[in-house]
Amino acid sequence: MKTTTQEDLLAKEGMARRSFLKFAGAGAIAAGVVATASSCQKHGGVVGDPNAIDLGTGDIAVLNYAYALEQLEAAFYTQVISSPYTNITTDERNLLTDIRDHEVAHREFFKTALGGNAIAGLTPNFSKINFADRTSVLSYAKAFEDLGVAAYNGAGYLIKSADYLTLAGKIVSVEARHAALIRLLLGIAIEEDTIVNVSGSGLELSQTPQQVLGQANQFLSGKPLIAPNLM
Amino acid sequence: MNLLNLIEDIQTADPEFKDRISPRRAAIKNITSFGTKVAAAALPFAFSTLFKKAYGQTATRSVNDVLNFALTAEIAELGLYNTALGRTNLIPAQDRPAITLLRDVETKHVTFLKLVLGSNISSTNAGLSFAANTPNFDYTGNKGSANTATAPFPTVFTDYNIFLAVANAFEDTGVRAYKGQAPFLLGNQTVLTAALNIHSVEARHAAFLRRLRAIRSGAAIKPWITGDGATASGVPAGTLAGTTAAFVYAGEANTTQAGVNIAGFVSTSAAQESFDEPLTTDQVLSILTNFIKA
Predict the structure, then answer these.
(1) Are B74 and B39 contained in the same domain?
(2) Residues B251 and B277: beta-carbon distance below 8 Å
(3) In this structure, which of A143, B43, B212, B276 has its CB flanked by the most CB atoms within 10 Å?
Protein backbone atom coordinates (compact mmCIF):
# COMPACT_ATOMS: atom_id res chain seq x y z
CA MET A 1 0.00 0.00 0.00
CA LYS A 2 1.36 3.38 -0.91
CA THR A 3 2.19 5.80 1.81
CA THR A 4 -0.65 8.13 2.64
CA THR A 5 0.09 11.42 4.33
CA GLN A 6 -1.92 12.86 7.15
CA GLU A 7 -3.16 15.66 4.87
CA ASP A 8 -4.36 13.20 2.25
CA LEU A 9 -6.36 11.31 4.82
CA LEU A 10 -7.85 14.45 6.29
CA ALA A 11 -8.86 15.65 2.85
CA LYS A 12 -10.36 12.31 1.86
CA GLU A 13 -12.18 11.53 5.04
CA GLY A 14 -13.65 14.96 5.66
CA MET A 15 -16.59 14.79 8.04
CA ALA A 16 -15.89 11.28 9.23
CA ARG A 17 -12.48 12.36 10.39
CA ARG A 18 -14.06 15.28 12.23
CA SER A 19 -16.56 13.11 14.01
CA PHE A 20 -13.72 10.96 15.20
CA LEU A 21 -11.96 14.00 16.58
CA LYS A 22 -15.11 15.01 18.37
CA PHE A 23 -15.02 11.65 20.08
CA ALA A 24 -11.32 11.60 20.71
CA GLY A 25 -11.03 14.57 23.04
CA ALA A 26 -8.08 16.89 23.54
CA GLY A 27 -5.64 14.42 24.98
CA ALA A 28 -6.17 12.00 22.16
CA ILE A 29 -6.06 14.37 19.22
CA ALA A 30 -2.36 14.05 18.65
CA ALA A 31 -2.45 10.30 19.16
CA GLY A 32 -5.46 9.96 16.85
CA VAL A 33 -3.68 11.75 14.04
CA VAL A 34 -0.68 9.48 14.38
CA ALA A 35 -2.90 6.41 14.42
CA THR A 36 -4.77 7.52 11.33
CA ALA A 37 -1.64 8.44 9.46
CA SER A 38 -0.09 5.07 10.10
CA SER A 39 -3.13 2.89 9.61
CA CYS A 40 -3.37 3.22 5.82
CA GLN A 41 -6.84 1.74 5.94
CA LYS A 42 -10.30 3.04 5.76
CA HIS A 43 -13.82 1.71 5.57
CA GLY A 44 -12.72 -1.81 6.39
CA GLY A 45 -10.22 -1.73 3.59
CA VAL A 46 -7.50 -4.28 3.42
CA VAL A 47 -3.83 -3.84 4.15
CA GLY A 48 -1.52 -6.53 2.88
CA ASP A 49 -3.88 -9.50 2.95
CA PRO A 50 -6.66 -9.08 0.37
CA ASN A 51 -8.56 -12.01 1.84
CA ALA A 52 -9.03 -10.58 5.31
CA ILE A 53 -10.39 -7.54 7.14
CA ASP A 54 -7.53 -5.83 8.96
CA LEU A 55 -8.63 -4.02 12.11
CA GLY A 56 -5.88 -1.43 11.72
CA THR A 57 -3.30 -0.10 14.12
CA GLY A 58 -3.14 1.60 17.50
CA ASP A 59 -6.27 2.55 19.38
CA ILE A 60 -8.28 2.45 16.15
CA ALA A 61 -7.53 -1.27 15.92
CA VAL A 62 -8.68 -1.85 19.50
CA LEU A 63 -11.88 0.11 18.90
CA ASN A 64 -12.53 -1.82 15.65
CA TYR A 65 -11.87 -5.05 17.55
CA ALA A 66 -14.56 -4.09 20.06
CA TYR A 67 -16.85 -2.92 17.23
CA ALA A 68 -16.52 -6.31 15.51
CA LEU A 69 -17.38 -8.26 18.67
CA GLU A 70 -20.31 -5.98 19.46
CA GLN A 71 -21.62 -6.44 15.91
CA LEU A 72 -21.62 -10.20 16.45
CA GLU A 73 -23.34 -10.01 19.82
CA ALA A 74 -25.95 -7.48 18.65
CA ALA A 75 -26.79 -9.60 15.61
CA PHE A 76 -27.10 -12.72 17.77
CA TYR A 77 -29.51 -11.20 20.30
CA THR A 78 -31.49 -9.44 17.55
CA GLN A 79 -32.18 -12.87 16.08
CA VAL A 80 -32.93 -14.33 19.53
CA ILE A 81 -35.64 -11.71 20.08
CA SER A 82 -37.06 -11.81 16.54
CA SER A 83 -37.37 -15.63 16.65
CA PRO A 84 -37.59 -16.58 20.35
CA TYR A 85 -36.89 -20.13 21.45
CA THR A 86 -39.72 -22.50 22.36
CA ASN A 87 -41.41 -21.76 25.70
CA ILE A 88 -39.46 -18.59 26.40
CA THR A 89 -40.86 -16.96 29.56
CA THR A 90 -41.80 -13.30 29.84
CA ASP A 91 -38.99 -12.80 32.35
CA GLU A 92 -36.43 -14.34 29.98
CA ARG A 93 -37.72 -12.36 27.02
CA ASN A 94 -37.44 -9.12 29.01
CA LEU A 95 -33.89 -9.89 30.12
CA LEU A 96 -32.73 -10.94 26.65
CA THR A 97 -34.37 -7.86 25.14
CA ASP A 98 -32.41 -5.69 27.58
CA ILE A 99 -29.20 -7.46 26.58
CA ARG A 100 -29.99 -6.99 22.88
CA ASP A 101 -30.49 -3.28 23.48
CA HIS A 102 -27.20 -3.01 25.39
CA GLU A 103 -25.30 -4.71 22.58
CA VAL A 104 -26.99 -2.52 19.96
CA ALA A 105 -25.99 0.53 22.05
CA HIS A 106 -22.38 -0.69 22.15
CA ARG A 107 -22.31 -1.41 18.42
CA GLU A 108 -23.78 1.94 17.45
CA PHE A 109 -21.49 3.75 19.88
CA PHE A 110 -18.35 2.28 18.28
CA LYS A 111 -19.69 2.83 14.78
CA THR A 112 -20.35 6.50 15.52
CA ALA A 113 -17.12 7.00 17.43
CA LEU A 114 -14.96 5.40 14.75
CA GLY A 115 -16.63 7.26 11.89
CA GLY A 116 -14.56 6.81 8.74
CA ASN A 117 -12.09 4.57 10.56
CA ALA A 118 -14.71 1.87 11.19
CA ILE A 119 -14.49 -1.52 9.54
CA ALA A 120 -17.45 -2.44 7.38
CA GLY A 121 -20.58 -4.06 8.74
CA LEU A 122 -19.92 -7.77 9.21
CA THR A 123 -22.11 -10.66 8.06
CA PRO A 124 -22.60 -13.11 10.91
CA ASN A 125 -22.99 -16.83 10.34
CA PHE A 126 -25.05 -18.41 13.09
CA SER A 127 -25.80 -21.66 11.24
CA LYS A 128 -24.48 -23.70 14.20
CA ILE A 129 -27.10 -22.24 16.52
CA ASN A 130 -30.57 -23.70 16.90
CA PHE A 131 -32.57 -20.57 17.70
CA ALA A 132 -35.68 -22.64 18.53
CA ASP A 133 -33.88 -24.43 21.36
CA ARG A 134 -33.40 -22.73 24.73
CA THR A 135 -30.26 -24.61 25.68
CA SER A 136 -28.63 -23.96 22.31
CA VAL A 137 -29.40 -20.24 22.44
CA LEU A 138 -28.32 -19.73 26.05
CA SER A 139 -25.18 -21.82 25.60
CA TYR A 140 -24.07 -19.66 22.69
CA ALA A 141 -25.07 -16.54 24.63
CA LYS A 142 -22.79 -17.70 27.44
CA ALA A 143 -19.98 -18.34 24.97
CA PHE A 144 -20.34 -14.89 23.37
CA GLU A 145 -20.50 -13.07 26.71
CA ASP A 146 -17.57 -14.91 28.26
CA LEU A 147 -15.57 -14.35 25.08
CA GLY A 148 -16.45 -10.65 25.13
CA VAL A 149 -15.27 -10.22 28.73
CA ALA A 150 -12.05 -12.13 28.07
CA ALA A 151 -11.48 -10.03 24.94
CA TYR A 152 -11.91 -6.61 26.56
CA ASN A 153 -9.78 -7.64 29.54
CA GLY A 154 -7.03 -8.96 27.30
CA ALA A 155 -6.94 -5.87 25.07
CA GLY A 156 -7.03 -3.24 27.82
CA TYR A 157 -3.28 -2.82 28.09
CA LEU A 158 -3.00 -2.19 24.33
CA ILE A 159 -5.12 0.97 24.64
CA LYS A 160 -3.06 4.16 24.64
CA SER A 161 -5.74 6.71 25.54
CA ALA A 162 -7.05 6.87 29.12
CA ASP A 163 -10.45 7.92 27.78
CA TYR A 164 -10.73 4.84 25.57
CA LEU A 165 -9.57 2.63 28.41
CA THR A 166 -12.33 4.01 30.64
CA LEU A 167 -14.87 3.45 27.87
CA ALA A 168 -13.77 -0.15 27.44
CA GLY A 169 -14.06 -0.54 31.21
CA LYS A 170 -17.57 0.88 31.16
CA ILE A 171 -18.62 -1.75 28.63
CA VAL A 172 -16.78 -4.84 29.84
CA SER A 173 -18.47 -4.89 33.25
CA VAL A 174 -21.85 -4.83 31.52
CA GLU A 175 -20.76 -7.82 29.43
CA ALA A 176 -19.75 -9.57 32.66
CA ARG A 177 -23.20 -8.83 34.11
CA HIS A 178 -24.75 -10.42 31.02
CA ALA A 179 -22.48 -13.44 31.38
CA ALA A 180 -23.48 -13.96 35.01
CA LEU A 181 -27.19 -13.67 34.23
CA ILE A 182 -27.01 -16.12 31.31
CA ARG A 183 -25.23 -18.60 33.59
CA LEU A 184 -28.02 -18.24 36.15
CA LEU A 185 -30.62 -18.88 33.43
CA LEU A 186 -28.70 -22.03 32.49
CA GLY A 187 -28.60 -23.09 36.13
CA ILE A 188 -24.81 -23.35 36.27
CA ALA A 189 -22.22 -21.83 38.62
CA ILE A 190 -21.58 -18.12 38.04
CA GLU A 191 -17.85 -18.81 38.00
CA GLU A 192 -15.87 -21.88 37.07
CA ASP A 193 -12.25 -22.55 36.21
CA THR A 194 -12.82 -22.29 32.46
CA ILE A 195 -13.48 -18.55 32.70
CA VAL A 196 -12.33 -17.44 36.16
CA ASN A 197 -9.37 -18.97 37.97
CA VAL A 198 -11.57 -19.91 40.92
CA SER A 199 -9.14 -22.43 42.36
CA GLY A 200 -6.14 -20.12 41.97
CA SER A 201 -5.93 -16.33 41.86
CA GLY A 202 -9.66 -15.59 41.57
CA LEU A 203 -8.96 -13.63 38.38
CA GLU A 204 -10.89 -13.75 35.10
CA LEU A 205 -8.96 -15.56 32.34
CA SER A 206 -8.43 -12.86 29.73
CA GLN A 207 -7.59 -13.76 26.14
CA THR A 208 -5.39 -12.12 23.54
CA PRO A 209 -6.92 -10.62 20.38
CA GLN A 210 -5.37 -13.46 18.37
CA GLN A 211 -7.08 -16.07 20.55
CA VAL A 212 -10.40 -14.24 20.45
CA LEU A 213 -10.44 -13.61 16.69
CA GLY A 214 -9.88 -17.31 16.05
CA GLN A 215 -13.15 -17.99 17.83
CA ALA A 216 -15.08 -14.97 16.55
CA ASN A 217 -14.22 -15.75 12.92
CA GLN A 218 -16.13 -19.03 13.21
CA PHE A 219 -19.31 -16.94 13.37
CA LEU A 220 -18.58 -14.77 10.34
CA SER A 221 -19.34 -15.22 6.66
CA GLY A 222 -16.89 -13.80 4.17
CA LYS A 223 -13.45 -12.48 4.98
CA PRO A 224 -12.01 -13.26 8.42
CA LEU A 225 -10.90 -10.55 10.80
CA ILE A 226 -7.20 -10.15 11.36
CA ALA A 227 -5.30 -7.90 13.75
CA PRO A 228 -1.59 -8.27 13.01
CA ASN A 229 -0.93 -5.06 14.94
CA LEU A 230 -2.71 -6.15 18.10
CA MET A 231 0.04 -8.33 19.49
CA MET B 1 -15.14 30.30 20.59
CA ASN B 2 -11.70 31.75 21.16
CA LEU B 3 -9.65 29.21 22.99
CA LEU B 4 -6.61 31.38 23.54
CA ASN B 5 -8.69 34.08 25.23
CA LEU B 6 -10.45 31.48 27.31
CA ILE B 7 -7.16 30.03 28.50
CA GLU B 8 -5.97 33.52 29.41
CA ASP B 9 -9.18 34.19 31.33
CA ILE B 10 -8.75 31.00 33.29
CA GLN B 11 -5.14 31.83 33.93
CA THR B 12 -6.28 35.12 35.51
CA ALA B 13 -8.84 33.38 37.71
CA ASP B 14 -6.61 30.45 38.53
CA PRO B 15 -2.89 31.22 38.43
CA GLU B 16 -2.11 27.54 38.82
CA PHE B 17 -4.08 26.54 35.75
CA LYS B 18 -1.04 25.93 33.60
CA ASP B 19 0.48 23.77 36.29
CA ARG B 20 -2.69 21.77 36.61
CA ILE B 21 -2.72 20.98 32.94
CA SER B 22 1.03 20.75 32.65
CA PRO B 23 1.09 17.22 31.22
CA ARG B 24 -1.45 18.37 28.68
CA ARG B 25 0.31 21.45 27.43
CA ALA B 26 1.30 19.64 24.29
CA ALA B 27 -2.35 18.92 23.67
CA ILE B 28 -3.29 22.58 24.01
CA LYS B 29 -0.58 23.50 21.59
CA ASN B 30 -2.08 21.00 19.21
CA ILE B 31 -5.53 22.48 19.58
CA THR B 32 -4.35 25.94 18.63
CA SER B 33 -2.22 24.90 15.68
CA PHE B 34 -4.83 22.39 14.60
CA GLY B 35 -7.67 24.88 14.93
CA THR B 36 -8.41 25.46 11.29
CA LYS B 37 -8.72 21.76 10.56
CA VAL B 38 -10.98 20.85 13.42
CA ALA B 39 -14.67 21.62 13.18
CA ALA B 40 -15.67 24.20 15.76
CA ALA B 41 -18.29 21.79 17.03
CA ALA B 42 -15.58 19.38 18.06
CA LEU B 43 -13.93 21.79 20.44
CA PRO B 44 -16.34 21.96 23.37
CA PHE B 45 -16.01 18.27 24.00
CA ALA B 46 -12.27 18.30 23.52
CA PHE B 47 -11.97 21.14 25.95
CA SER B 48 -14.28 19.66 28.55
CA THR B 49 -12.09 16.58 28.58
CA LEU B 50 -9.11 18.80 29.25
CA PHE B 51 -10.91 20.41 32.19
CA LYS B 52 -11.88 17.07 33.61
CA LYS B 53 -8.26 16.08 33.53
CA ALA B 54 -7.12 19.33 35.13
CA TYR B 55 -9.73 19.56 37.86
CA GLY B 56 -10.95 15.99 38.21
CA GLN B 57 -9.32 13.38 40.38
CA THR B 58 -5.68 13.60 41.35
CA ALA B 59 -3.55 13.51 38.26
CA THR B 60 -1.38 10.57 39.15
CA ARG B 61 -1.43 7.64 41.52
CA SER B 62 1.28 5.07 41.78
CA VAL B 63 0.65 1.43 41.00
CA ASN B 64 1.05 0.70 44.72
CA ASP B 65 -1.52 3.37 45.58
CA VAL B 66 -3.98 1.68 43.25
CA LEU B 67 -3.25 -1.80 44.57
CA ASN B 68 -3.56 -0.72 48.21
CA PHE B 69 -6.82 0.98 47.39
CA ALA B 70 -8.10 -2.19 45.72
CA LEU B 71 -6.97 -4.23 48.70
CA THR B 72 -9.02 -2.01 50.99
CA ALA B 73 -12.16 -2.60 48.95
CA GLU B 74 -11.52 -6.35 48.77
CA ILE B 75 -10.92 -6.63 52.52
CA ALA B 76 -14.16 -4.78 53.15
CA GLU B 77 -16.07 -7.21 50.90
CA LEU B 78 -14.39 -10.23 52.40
CA GLY B 79 -15.25 -9.14 55.93
CA LEU B 80 -18.89 -8.77 54.97
CA TYR B 81 -19.11 -12.30 53.54
CA ASN B 82 -17.12 -13.84 56.39
CA THR B 83 -19.33 -12.26 59.03
CA ALA B 84 -22.50 -13.31 57.20
CA LEU B 85 -21.32 -16.90 56.72
CA GLY B 86 -20.51 -17.00 60.44
CA ARG B 87 -24.14 -16.33 61.37
CA THR B 88 -26.15 -19.53 61.62
CA ASN B 89 -29.61 -18.19 60.76
CA LEU B 90 -28.88 -15.63 58.07
CA ILE B 91 -28.14 -17.39 54.79
CA PRO B 92 -30.65 -20.03 53.59
CA ALA B 93 -29.10 -23.45 53.03
CA GLN B 94 -29.69 -23.38 49.27
CA ASP B 95 -27.76 -20.11 48.91
CA ARG B 96 -24.79 -21.03 51.11
CA PRO B 97 -22.73 -22.60 48.30
CA ALA B 98 -23.05 -19.47 46.13
CA ILE B 99 -22.29 -17.02 48.95
CA THR B 100 -19.37 -19.24 49.97
CA LEU B 101 -18.08 -19.10 46.38
CA LEU B 102 -18.23 -15.29 46.45
CA ARG B 103 -16.35 -15.28 49.76
CA ASP B 104 -13.72 -17.70 48.49
CA VAL B 105 -13.08 -15.67 45.35
CA GLU B 106 -12.77 -12.45 47.38
CA THR B 107 -10.31 -14.26 49.65
CA LYS B 108 -8.24 -15.08 46.59
CA HIS B 109 -8.34 -11.47 45.45
CA VAL B 110 -7.05 -10.34 48.84
CA THR B 111 -4.31 -12.98 48.75
CA PHE B 112 -3.39 -12.02 45.19
CA LEU B 113 -3.19 -8.29 45.93
CA LYS B 114 -1.11 -8.86 49.07
CA LEU B 115 1.23 -11.10 47.11
CA VAL B 116 1.67 -8.47 44.38
CA LEU B 117 2.15 -5.66 46.92
CA GLY B 118 4.62 -7.59 49.06
CA SER B 119 6.30 -5.16 51.42
CA ASN B 120 4.43 -2.25 49.84
CA ILE B 121 1.19 -2.91 51.72
CA SER B 122 0.07 0.36 53.25
CA SER B 123 -0.58 0.40 57.00
CA THR B 124 -3.09 3.21 56.49
CA ASN B 125 -4.91 1.69 53.56
CA ALA B 126 -5.81 4.30 50.97
CA GLY B 127 -5.95 6.96 53.66
CA LEU B 128 -8.46 5.07 55.78
CA SER B 129 -7.52 4.71 59.42
CA PHE B 130 -7.17 0.98 59.74
CA ALA B 131 -4.35 -1.41 59.10
CA ALA B 132 -4.65 -3.79 56.18
CA ASN B 133 -4.72 -6.82 58.40
CA THR B 134 -6.90 -5.47 61.18
CA PRO B 135 -10.03 -4.12 59.53
CA ASN B 136 -12.58 -2.67 61.86
CA PHE B 137 -15.84 -2.54 59.97
CA ASP B 138 -19.39 -1.54 60.79
CA TYR B 139 -21.53 -3.12 58.08
CA THR B 140 -24.67 -1.41 59.39
CA GLY B 141 -23.16 1.66 57.68
CA ASN B 142 -23.08 3.58 60.95
CA LYS B 143 -19.34 4.32 61.28
CA GLY B 144 -19.27 2.38 64.54
CA SER B 145 -21.77 4.61 66.30
CA ALA B 146 -23.86 2.91 69.01
CA ASN B 147 -26.89 4.97 68.01
CA THR B 148 -28.80 2.44 65.89
CA ALA B 149 -31.30 5.10 64.83
CA THR B 150 -28.64 6.50 62.50
CA ALA B 151 -27.69 3.15 60.96
CA PRO B 152 -28.78 2.77 57.31
CA PHE B 153 -28.63 -1.06 57.46
CA PRO B 154 -29.20 -2.05 61.15
CA THR B 155 -30.38 -5.57 60.20
CA VAL B 156 -27.54 -6.43 57.80
CA PHE B 157 -26.74 -9.68 59.64
CA THR B 158 -30.27 -10.62 60.72
CA ASP B 159 -32.32 -9.91 57.58
CA TYR B 160 -31.05 -11.85 54.53
CA ASN B 161 -32.62 -9.42 52.05
CA ILE B 162 -30.79 -6.51 53.70
CA PHE B 163 -27.54 -8.46 53.73
CA LEU B 164 -27.93 -9.10 49.98
CA ALA B 165 -28.62 -5.40 49.40
CA VAL B 166 -25.44 -4.41 51.26
CA ALA B 167 -23.36 -7.08 49.50
CA ASN B 168 -24.79 -5.89 46.19
CA ALA B 169 -23.77 -2.31 47.02
CA PHE B 170 -20.24 -3.43 47.92
CA GLU B 171 -19.84 -5.40 44.69
CA ASP B 172 -21.15 -2.57 42.51
CA THR B 173 -18.88 -0.15 44.36
CA GLY B 174 -16.01 -2.53 43.68
CA VAL B 175 -16.82 -2.59 39.97
CA ARG B 176 -16.97 1.20 39.81
CA ALA B 177 -13.83 1.60 41.94
CA TYR B 178 -11.64 -0.63 39.76
CA LYS B 179 -13.00 1.14 36.67
CA GLY B 180 -12.00 4.52 38.10
CA GLN B 181 -8.47 3.32 38.88
CA ALA B 182 -7.80 1.74 35.47
CA PRO B 183 -6.45 4.92 33.81
CA PHE B 184 -3.70 5.08 36.45
CA LEU B 185 -2.48 1.73 35.15
CA LEU B 186 -2.59 2.70 31.46
CA GLY B 187 -0.37 0.48 29.34
CA ASN B 188 0.81 -1.64 32.29
CA GLN B 189 0.28 -5.10 30.82
CA THR B 190 0.71 -7.02 34.06
CA VAL B 191 -1.07 -4.89 36.63
CA LEU B 192 -3.77 -3.37 34.41
CA THR B 193 -4.69 -6.78 33.03
CA ALA B 194 -4.86 -8.22 36.54
CA ALA B 195 -7.02 -5.31 37.70
CA LEU B 196 -9.36 -5.77 34.73
CA ASN B 197 -9.51 -9.49 35.46
CA ILE B 198 -10.69 -8.71 39.00
CA HIS B 199 -13.02 -5.92 37.83
CA SER B 200 -15.07 -8.26 35.63
CA VAL B 201 -15.33 -10.84 38.41
CA GLU B 202 -16.77 -8.16 40.71
CA ALA B 203 -19.31 -7.39 37.99
CA ARG B 204 -20.28 -11.06 37.77
CA HIS B 205 -20.79 -11.08 41.54
CA ALA B 206 -22.87 -7.91 41.44
CA ALA B 207 -25.12 -9.27 38.69
CA PHE B 208 -25.60 -12.53 40.59
CA LEU B 209 -26.62 -10.73 43.78
CA ARG B 210 -28.98 -8.44 41.87
CA ARG B 211 -30.67 -11.39 40.20
CA LEU B 212 -30.94 -13.24 43.50
CA ARG B 213 -32.57 -10.21 45.11
CA ALA B 214 -35.06 -9.87 42.27
CA ILE B 215 -36.03 -13.54 42.48
CA ARG B 216 -36.17 -13.74 46.30
CA SER B 217 -37.97 -10.57 47.21
CA GLY B 218 -39.35 -9.40 43.91
CA ALA B 219 -37.16 -6.30 44.22
CA ALA B 220 -37.48 -4.10 41.15
CA ILE B 221 -33.85 -4.49 40.27
CA LYS B 222 -32.08 -5.87 37.21
CA PRO B 223 -28.68 -7.57 36.89
CA TRP B 224 -27.48 -4.28 35.34
CA ILE B 225 -27.66 -0.77 36.77
CA THR B 226 -30.71 1.24 35.71
CA GLY B 227 -30.34 4.94 36.47
CA ASP B 228 -29.01 6.30 39.76
CA GLY B 229 -31.96 6.02 42.17
CA ALA B 230 -34.05 3.22 43.66
CA THR B 231 -34.09 1.44 40.27
CA ALA B 232 -30.31 1.17 40.55
CA SER B 233 -30.05 0.03 44.17
CA GLY B 234 -33.37 -1.71 44.77
CA VAL B 235 -33.43 0.15 48.08
CA PRO B 236 -36.35 2.54 48.75
CA ALA B 237 -35.58 6.21 48.22
CA GLY B 238 -36.29 8.52 51.14
CA THR B 239 -34.89 6.10 53.72
CA LEU B 240 -31.48 6.22 55.41
CA ALA B 241 -30.56 3.10 53.46
CA GLY B 242 -31.75 4.70 50.25
CA THR B 243 -29.68 7.80 50.89
CA THR B 244 -26.56 5.71 51.52
CA ALA B 245 -27.21 3.54 48.47
CA ALA B 246 -27.66 6.64 46.31
CA PHE B 247 -23.96 7.47 46.75
CA VAL B 248 -23.07 4.07 45.34
CA TYR B 249 -24.90 4.85 42.09
CA ALA B 250 -24.06 8.53 41.63
CA GLY B 251 -23.58 9.24 37.93
CA GLU B 252 -25.14 6.01 36.66
CA ALA B 253 -27.97 7.88 34.92
CA ASN B 254 -25.49 9.09 32.30
CA THR B 255 -26.60 8.46 28.70
CA THR B 256 -23.83 10.29 26.84
CA GLN B 257 -20.55 8.52 26.14
CA ALA B 258 -17.61 10.45 24.68
CA GLY B 259 -20.03 12.97 23.24
CA VAL B 260 -22.22 10.30 21.65
CA ASN B 261 -25.89 10.30 22.69
CA ILE B 262 -26.58 6.62 23.44
CA ALA B 263 -30.28 7.33 24.05
CA GLY B 264 -30.44 8.14 20.33
CA PHE B 265 -29.94 4.42 19.62
CA VAL B 266 -31.90 2.70 22.40
CA SER B 267 -34.28 3.62 25.25
CA THR B 268 -33.05 5.88 28.04
CA SER B 269 -32.94 3.03 30.55
CA ALA B 270 -31.03 0.78 28.12
CA ALA B 271 -28.63 3.67 27.45
CA GLN B 272 -28.00 3.96 31.21
CA GLU B 273 -27.62 0.21 31.67
CA SER B 274 -25.30 -0.42 28.74
CA PHE B 275 -22.39 1.53 30.24
CA ASP B 276 -21.28 1.19 33.88
CA GLU B 277 -19.75 4.41 35.17
CA PRO B 278 -16.53 4.79 37.18
CA LEU B 279 -16.18 6.29 40.65
CA THR B 280 -13.26 8.50 41.63
CA THR B 281 -10.97 7.57 44.49
CA ASP B 282 -12.64 10.15 46.73
CA GLN B 283 -16.14 8.95 45.87
CA VAL B 284 -15.20 5.39 46.78
CA LEU B 285 -13.59 6.47 50.04
CA SER B 286 -16.68 8.48 50.99
CA ILE B 287 -18.80 5.34 50.50
CA LEU B 288 -16.41 3.05 52.39
CA THR B 289 -16.08 5.51 55.28
CA ASN B 290 -19.67 4.75 56.26
CA PHE B 291 -18.71 1.15 56.88
CA ILE B 292 -15.55 1.72 58.89
CA LYS B 293 -15.54 2.41 62.63
CA ALA B 294 -14.46 5.96 63.24
Answers:
(1) no
(2) yes
(3) B276
Would you kindly state where each structural domain of chain A is located, as residue ranges? 6-226
Question: What is the spatial distance between Cα A81 and Cα A64, in angstroms, rounded to a whole number?
Answer: 26
Q: Which of A21, A169, A190 sits opposite B179 (nearest CB)?
A: A169
Residues B39 and B79 in one domain: no
- Does residue B31 sit in the same domain as residue B138? no
Query: Euclidean distance between the first and final Cα of chain A, in Å?
Result: 21
Statement to judge: residues B36 and B135 lie in one domain? no
Cα maximum dimension of chain B: 70
Cα distance between residue A224 and residue A220, in whole Å: 7
Q: Tell me which residue of A8, A65, A180, A126 sits closest to B204, measured CA to CA.
A: A180
Looking at domain A6-226, does it have CATH number 3.30.1360.10?
no
Chain B residues closer than 8 Å to A180 by CB: 203-205, 207-208, 211, 223
Collapsing DSSP states into helix, strand and coil, what is residue A133? Answer: coil
CA distance A227 to A65: 8
The predicted-structure confidence for B130-166, as pLDDT tens digits, reads as follows 544 455 889 999 998 989 899 999 999 999 999 999 9
Grouping H, G, I as helix, E, B as strand and the rest as coil, residue B257 is: strand
The fraction of chain A above a pLDDT of 70, given in percent, is 79
**pLDDT means per 10 residues in chain A (231 residues)?**
36 36 36 37 55 95 98 98 97 98 98 96 96 98 98 97 97 98 94 91 96 97 94 84
Residues B101 and B43 in one domain: no
Residue A200, SS3?
A: coil
Under 8 Å CB pairs connecting chains A and B tally to 234
B45 touches chain A (CB under 8 A): yes
Same domain, B31 and B72: no
Q: Where would I find the beta strands (DSSP E) of chain A?
A: 53-54, 123-124, 220-221, 225-226
* CA–CA separation, A210 and A187 (whole Å): 31
Domain of residue B224, residue span: 63-291
Report the DSSP beta bridge partners of residue A204. Answer: A196
Q: Which amino acid is at B235?
A: V
**Claim to verify: residue B10 and residue B77 sit in the same structural domain:** no
Beta-carbon separation of B224 and A203 below 8 A: no
Residues in chain B within 8 Å Cβ distance of A102: 224, 266, 270, 273-274
Same domain, B120 and B198: yes
pLDDT surpassing 70 at residue B17 = no
Q: Which of A144, A6, A111, A121 is nearest to A53 (CA)?
A: A121
Element of type H or E holding B261: strand B260-261
* Facing B223 at nearest CB: one of A30, A177, A191: A177
Q: Is A187 exposed, middle or buried (0-12, 13-18, 19+ CB in 10 A)?
A: exposed
Q: Which helix (H) or strand (E) covers residue B282, if one does? A: helix B281-288
